[in-house]
Design a protein that fits this description.
CATH architecture: 4-Layer Sandwich
Shape: globular
CATH superfamily: Ribonuclease Z/Hydroxyacylglutathione hydrolase-like
Structural class: alpha/beta
Largest sheet: 7 strands, mixed
Strand order of the largest sheet: 1-2-3-4-5-6-7
Distance between the termini: 33 Å
CATH class: Alpha Beta
Radius of gyration: 19 Å
Number of strands: 12
Number of helices: 10
Bound molecules: zinc ion
Strand content: 15-25%
Order of helices and strands: HEEEEHEHHEHHEEEEEHEHHH
Number of domains: 1
Helix content: 25-40%
């Protein structure tokens, strides 16, 4: 039985993920590996919504080889995607996947755990403690069901595989010769995001706290203010490369680009709220203010919900 809260999340997620998924032929999942360094490889996800062609795969997967085995960040949005990640890992090393980090609770980032576990049942899966408890609860099952349905069963998911180890802000996790530093600064893209530094490589994986070229969900556990704060927090540090949850990697300009989007939504909605406009009245004005972003994938699909989310956040702060 769904609680009112989780039902609302499901409805919002289904609505924004695209309920009317168009039937397409099942894809082969032949997304290539990109080599970033001796230690780090990446599989860039496509921007399409989950469907039979991408079998739920649409996020950026990071593969780190350590002296103790392979570590994967966000192994895809389905069991099938996780199996693809395993086959890509096997193409670069004979060593097993020993650990997985999940950046947050959205299923396009963690449903691949199941595919990894089929080959490597001993792999440790890390996630923020809120992500762990949400995934273990109804939210985990809702994501599994939704992605199986949107992909017409080609996602191949059978069970929820939640993290088995919790991580917190500031944790330093050593795996073989490599250290991973965890950042969490409160509610941002969700209330359970982690960003992961690959220590010594000057690389930061931001998960969906930073996105590049693709808009995504901002729901009840999101905070525009908190997401801005998380980007400001991480901007005080300096990395050679930032890998977002979706879209191309790059330098600090990626942080600045997404920060400016969030800031413009917040600032414009706040000004119009003070003028007494309702959220539906604001939408065209906010869209005008965001013209630089209109070519980002998902702009038309998400912008209305982002305005509503920012409106509710500002309204709640006013009381
Ligand atoms: Zn997300």
């Amino acid at each position: 039985m769904l609680t009112k809260f989780t039902s609302r999340i499901l409805v919002a997620a289904i609505g924004s993920m695209g309920l009317s998924a168009v039937s397409v032929e099942a894809g082969e999942l032949d997304y290539p590996l990109t080599r970033l360094s001796d230690k780090i490889h990446l599989i860039y996800g496509p921007f399409a919504l989950p469907d039979a062609r991408n079998r739920g795969f649409r996020n950026n997967v990071v593969i780190v080889t350590t002296s103790a085995g392979v570590v994967v960040f966000d192994p895809g949005g389905s069991a099938a995607a996780g199996e693809m990640v395993v086959s890509r890992v096997k193409s670069i090393t004979d060593t097993p996947i020993v650990a997985v980090f999940n950046s947050h609770v959205h299923g396009d980032h963690w449903l691949g755990n199941e595919g990894v576990k089929r080959s490597y049942p001993k792999a440790v899966i890390y996630g923020h403690h809120v992500m762990k408890s949400k995934t273990e609860g109804p939210v985990g099952e809702q994501w599994l069901t939704m992605i199986n349905r949107l992909t017409e069963g080609t996602a191949g998911g059978k069970i929820v595989v939640a993290p088995n180890v919790s991580v917190e802000n500031g944790d330093l996790i050593t795996i073989g010769d490599t250290e991973f530093r965890i950042f969490h600064s409160g509610s941002a893209h969700t209330d359970n995001d982690i960003m992961i530094e690959i220590v010594g490589e000057h690389v930061l994986f931001t998960g969906d706290v930073v996105r590049n070229g693709l808009f995504g969900l901002m729901e009840e556990d999101s905070s525009f203010k908190g997401n801005l704060a998380a980007i400001d927090f991480i901007s005080k540090k300096s990395y050679k490369l930032y890998i977002p949850g979706h879209g191309s990697s790059g330098g600090k300009e990626i942080l600045n680009g997404y920060r400016e989007y969030l800031h413009t939504v917040r600032e414009t909605v706040e000004a119009l709220y003070e003028e007494g406009l309702a959220d539906y009245e604001m939408k065209p004005k906010v869209i005008d203010a965001l013209s630089v972003y209109k070519d980002w994938s998902g702009f038309d699909l998400r912008v209305g919900s982002h305005v509503s989310r920012a409106y509710l956040e500002i309204e709640a702060e006013a009381f």
